[in-house]
Specification:
three-stranded mixed beta sheet, Rossmann fold, about 10% strand, 14 helices, single chain, about 290 residues, N-(1-d-carboxylethyl)-l-norvaline Dehydrogenase, domain 2, mainly alpha, three-stranded parallel beta sheet
């Protein structure tokens, strides 16, 4: 995601400084395109008016901001920090409050879609910010996003993203369980696909999982790992519990994702929930 965001920013005329996260190749490409590489997270704050973070979740965001040579240590009053990760609302609130004491604005702007759309500048983002900050950021966000939704005040972007991801993973886990039930009963999964595709239960996610699976056993239709999916559902259930709101379905979805991770599928994409169901049910589902 990060390379696509940065590429579109620099190609659309924004002066850009970047810092490597794990992989050198994307950074070298961005430098060739005109970006300037810096050595530390503090250097990002020193050189920029807006710092955009594209890391996995709350621990990584905290490390970038408050860790050694972090953004907070070099932040100037008026700096805007944009967190594009799917993070934890309580942790985001603590970071936002800490940065506000330095007159630094912390904006939650998590993303939807995939690295393909990131490269095309066609991501979706859900932004939690006050009206003035949102207006200031919108031209920057438009460099890499096709759809920009002002979810509401600070914190609402991440809440919207977690609810979105909960609903998405509920569909995916139900789909995997359903095809396992069909296979175990001897029912044709192609017939199941035919019926669902023709009715209201059909969805893009169903087609990414089952349609692609039936097309030669492809389990890469939804490029989102099961480890990240479990992390997001953990954040979601923590959030609902903090409001004393029962999340019976959320907990079930989370445990299904935890089970898939425990079975060794964490680094695979979400469609490998179906492989996990094969293991659990001792049944063949994926064409091989």
């Amino acid at each position: 995601m990060g390379h696509g965001i940065a590429k579109n920013l620099v190609e659309k005329g924004f002066p850009l400084v970047v810092r490597a996260h794990r992989n050198r190749a994307p950074i070298e490409d961005l430098v060739r395109r005109g970006a300037k590489e810096v050595a530390t997270n503090a250097d990002l704050a020193h050189h920029a008016d807006i710092v955009i973070l594209c890391v996995t979740g709350a621990p990584q965001v905290e490390e970038v901001i408050f860790g050694p040579a972090g953004v907070a240590g070099a932040a100037r009053p008026g700096l805007i920090v944009v967190d594009t990760s799917t993070s934890e609302p309580a942790t985001s609130a603590k970071m936002r409050e800490a940065l506000a004491r330095q007159d630094v604005r912390f904006v939650d702007a998590p993303l939807a879609r995939t690295p393909v759309e990131a490269e095309q500048g066609r991501l979706n983002t859900m932004v939690g910010a006050d009206d003035a900050t949102f207006a200031e950021l919108k031209p920057v966000l438009a460099a890499y996003c096709e759809n920009i939704v002002h979810a509401g005040p600070p914190g609402h972007g991440i809440v919207l993203k977690l609810i979105n991801n909960f609903i998405a993973q509920a569909i995916c886990t139900a789909t995997a369980e359903g095809v396992a039930a069909a296979a175990k009963a001897g029912l044709s999964i192609r017939k199941l696909h035919e019926v669902i595709s023709a009715g209201a239960v059909n969805s893009g996610l169903f087609q990414m999982l089952v349609g692609r699976m039936l097309d030669g056993g492809d389990l890469t239709g939804l490029k989102f790992t099961l480890s990240n999916a479990a992390k997001d559902l953990r954040y979601y259930t923590h959030f609902t519990e903090s409001m004393m709101l029962p999340s019976v379905v959320g907990e079930a979805v989370h445990q299904s994702l935890v089970t898939a991770n425990a079975l060794g599928f964490g680094d695979r994409y979400v469609a490998s929930l179906i492989e996990a169901q094969e293991r659990i049910g001792n049944v063949k589902i994926v064409p091989r």
